[in-house]
Amino acid sequence: MKILFLFTAGLMFLCTSTDGSASMRYVNARAVPSTDHYLDVVPIEEALTSSVMCVKLCATDVRCLSINYHKNKTCQLLDTFYCKDDTYVLKPKSGFKYMDVDFNRSPDELNQYQNSVDCVSRNRCSPKCTDCSLRSGYHNRIDGYIDQTAAIIEVTTRATSSGCRNYCISNYYSVCRAIVYYAAIQRCTVLSLTRDMANPDSFKQSVDFEYRQRWCT
Description:
With 217 residues, the chain is of the alpha+beta class. It contains 4 helices and 17 strands. It is globular, with a radius of gyration of 18 Å.
């Protein structure tokens, strides 16, 4: 993957495949207002590198959704993000900053969130943190699945796609954001993330899988 710098109001890159055939996308990482804090979860990877290279590592790891970065160049890649779970806390620790990572978001959209009261007062600075109410309905089918273990709430068996959708709503109404149904083996995967929250490379296109995302308004 080729990564080109666009600007550094935050850290934003333009990414394409090495042969240039893939559609271009943006990757943006910005620290939340609370400096000297980190997200208290177990990192999936840790390295000593610059902040720019840390974001590059995140952009090329499909599991990465946010970053803890220390001024001593400690880079921690995380497979979750602060506002995903109400039990998560940003803990104080000198030298650390927590950075939300977003994909395919325009600078104008990101700036709206960065300047919001929710960001300034609650560190909810990413479009992923939008407060909306999950509904019982679903968007139209998309062929494919999210290949990201951290997104999975449960894998179960259901005879039909509609049964899978109903299971999501009946058992995980407030946290299930999407489902993937694999009809060949009647496998129903309940997800806490939507494909627009995850790294775009984690979504795999396949006619064998049915991805459906719940309405959230």
